[in-house]
Amino acid sequence: MIDFKINKDKCTQCGICSQECPTLIIDGKKGIPEIKEGKEKNCIKCQHCLAVCPTAALSIWGKDPDDSIPVNGEIPNSKSLERLMKTRRSIRKFKKEELSKKLVLALLETAAYAPTGHNKNQVLLSVTEDREGLAKVRSLVYDAIKKAKDANTLPPAMAMFGNFQNLWNEKGIDVLFRDAPHFIIASAPKAIASSMADCVISLSYFELLANTHGIGTLWNGFLKTVFDHIAPELKEAMGIPEDHAIGYMVIFGKPAVKFARSVQSEGLHVNKITL
């Protein structure tokens, strides 16, 4: 049951909820909105009806509209958001200090608001909360690379990972984790058609908010290669379900370097569609 309820004292019978419903299961033509007979199963839990109701008269899935964040509060203006996006840089040198668990949780909770295909909301965010947890992951990763190298199972194109392992083992130089204090993996069920996109969008939400807190991030393709191709058994060790695919992963923490200005992008490629 989707637990669709209308507060009749608040409802103005404007019909906006039925017009906005993406699966058209709300009937607003009879006055007080109601779910069309036999259509409950078509609800995708998007909560659009709850979010669009101007008088907070509608509840669904047990959600109280008064617990939602109002839209009429302060939001970043276009210039400040543009500046954030243009000046954001990949960070490869981090301070040793950890972020508070409260802050990390707040970042994760915001990432959970990211849009997902068919509103599946099944992205799993696996995170290390402290340097000790990251150190354990690091050991597992470098040990797995050494195992593959010793067994001569490293593909020729990935031979450099053996060099990374040597640098860590012999000199303590951490090419993969950059001595960051935290690490996050976004994964989602393989059966979802948009699983990869869902993960990347969630991490993009995470990263943008992290940057407003002065937190540096690095999208880590090296680590994804290790998990996907060199040591896929690491996924189970991280507690990631077997039916999940890893979308991407990010290391993050307080940056040890401060950039003074943006780069000057030469990466714009536009195709103006003229049919």
From TrEMBL:
Q: Which organism is it from?
A: Saccharicrinis carchari
Family (UniProt): Belongs to the nitroreductase family.
Read off the CDD domains from this record: nitroreductase_FeS-like
InterPro entries the UniProt entry points to: 4Fe4S_Fe-S-bd (IPR017896), 4Fe4S_Fe_S_CS (IPR017900), Nitroreductase (IPR029479), Nitroreductase-like (IPR000415)
- For this UniProt record, give its keywords in alphabetical order, as a comma-separated list: Iron, Iron-sulfur, Metal-binding, Oxidoreductase
Name listed for the protein in its UniProt record: Nitroreductase
Q: Name one GO molecular function term.
A: iron-sulfur cluster binding
Iron as a keyword of this entry, yes or no, is yes
The UniProt entry, under Pfam families, shows: Fer4_9, Nitroreductase
Q: What are the 4Fe-4S ferredoxin-type domain coordinates in residue numbering?
A: 2-31, 33-63
Keyword Iron-sulfur among record annotations: yes
